[in-house]
């Protein structure tokens, strides 16, 4: 009887493990390739492959982003397939493609013998920029959008003169975005031309503008995040398409409903008719002013935001510089931020030779810095002493541990 019960428990445990593995497998959006399937997939279209090892720390850090990219891209008739190869299982295949470290990311273009190795920072904007630049053949949907450009430019000119809705989608650019959204109500689509979900939404978005031609108090707009990254970063766009409702230059909310025409139209009509509470807006403005004054007061005690190679080189040249390389959308970076601020304040109080700084790796002017410093995940913490970079800090991110780490490189008794 005891044997039977033990056997039953074993069967239940095995079933639970199999179910858990099946559930985990369902969450994997990237195509898993072996040597036989590799040749088949590469021969059928463009493929972006992650060569990895399951034990590799950098590979584990990249996995959520890779799955996010695959979820966006791996749809019907994709422009590029997002895939992966486990090099511990397929060593010969990885050796054939000159994989010498993990992860290695290679783009295989249809009809081309040699692949292109991705060498940039491993964040979504940098990777999507790479895909967009390498695969610049426009899709049918893109061609339709390009065809409408001249008409939209004409619309934009009239919009600038005061007519806010002519049944056309207003295409926004870096030099027109801020002015356009600064007053009034706006429903804005943040997109990437290569994104299949964006391509599917494009005709519906055009129809939405036509349906709302008489609703002159709101505009239906769009902006290409592959061309105007800084604006999309300012609005914390992390995936495509992102649909935001903006009032008087301020993001009110992110639309998360169905993307069919009736639902989108009902949403715009609801938002456009919703009363605004001037008191709340005034309170928000007052709070923002107070926060700005507080930031100005504590400016010397906060981590220095480095921008560009000149400022970076100057900061690390002498003394000790402890630098956080980060991305604004990174959850771990956001969690570390208050501790990093406190570390900067206490370091400033103890010594003028210690600088606590940070580098936004998604900013265009910092892209090369992060590549040169071999930043492969966020946040990455490097300490520099008189211009020389030390090993990456991989300890606890608590304030006492960070302070103790800095003490190793200075002669002071206390930080």
From TrEMBL:
Residue numbers spanned by region Disordered: 272-306
Compositionally biased region (Basic and acidic residues): 289-300
Lineage top rank: taxon: Eukaryota
Record carries keyword ATP-binding: no
Keywords, alphabetical: Isomerase, Redox-active center, Repeat, Signal
Listed Low complexity bias regions: 272-287
Position of the signal peptide: 1-22
A single GO BP: protein folding
Domain (Thioredoxin) ranges: 9-136, 145-273, 292-411
DNA-binding among keywords: no
Pfam families: Thioredoxin (PF00085)
GO molecular function: protein disulfide isomerase activity
Gene Ontology, cellular component aspect: endoplasmic reticulum
NCBIfam families: pdi_dom
Family: Belongs to the protein disulfide isomerase family.
Stated name of the protein: Thioredoxin domain-containing protein
The organism of origin for this protein: Drosophila willistoni (Fruit fly)
